[in-house]
Design goal:
With 211 residues, this protein is an alpha+beta fold. The protein is 40% helix and 8% strand. It has helices spanning 26-42, 70-76, 90-105, 115-124, 126-129, 135-152, 198-210; strands at residues 160-163, 167-168, 171-172, 176-179, 186-188, 194-195. Residues 51-71 are annotated as: Disordered.
Length: 211
């Protein structure tokens, strides 16, 4: 009998869960799909012009700066390469992975390539991607651009989602629970308990009842 247990290739280091499908666990698989969906929602909201406050003044002298938002350009330009300042470009990264999937699987590219066609290519081939030996690299790059785009869209993590329901001999923890952007689920800032799966459902029920 084979006692080998396949551990998730994309879980946090040191405590990987058992893989449920291919090389990833159920939670990480869902996280990848959620990040694809949110990238499709966040990217069109990025503004090409810099936001300026009413009292903002330019620097003295003759120097001028571009009115364009460099972060938005970096993440929406299909030709963007990695940079030490901004990391990976979101649209370029999504496009490169979609193109790699089509080449590996001998799929014909669409006549008109858009953000929607590229994200849909990754979504439709999700089950195949999660079985590939490079899924850890794919998940890491997707996680990186998702975090950067989310922050650029004005919705950075972590967000508080409620109070910890952990109880011990000293009473209830009651610490603030925040979402974990990198690896899914939520985590208490006080006792560091991670809520995922059924634990996350119980937490949400408790917040609803308390609220």
């Amino acid at each position: 009998m084979n006692d080998h247990v396949q551990r998730c290739a994309t879980c946090p280091p040191g405590n990987p869960r058992q893989a449920d499908s291919g090389l990833v666990c159920f939670q990480c698989s869902n996280r990848i799909l959620r990040q694809l969906r949110e990238l499709e929602e966040y990217l069109p909201t990025l503004q090409l012009e810099k936001r300026r406050g009413g009292a903002e003044r330019g620097a003295p002298g003759f120097a001028s700066t571009s009115p364009a938002d460099d972060t938005t350009i970096h993440h929406t330009d299909w030709r963007t390469n990695w940079s030490a300042l901004d990391g990976l470009g979101a649209v370029a990264t999504i496009h490169q992975w979609a193109r790699a999937v089509r080449e590996d699987r001998a799929f014909k590219p669409p006549r008109h390539v858009t953000l929607t066609t590229e994200i849909e290519a990754l979504r439709q081939n999700h089950s195949w991607l999660t079985c590939q030996p490079f899924v850890d690299e794919y998940a890491r790059e997707l996680r990186e651009v998702h975090g950067a785009v989310r922050a650029a869209a004005g919705d950075p993590a972590p967000h508080p989602v409620g109070r910890c329901i952990t109880a011990d001999q000293h009473g209830d923890c009651g610490g603030t629970v925040y979402e974990r952007l990198d690896f899914g689920g939520v985590q208490c800032a006080s006792c560091h308990r991670i809520y995922a799966g059924l634990d996350l459902v119980r937490l949400r029920v408790s917040q609803t009842e308390a609220g």
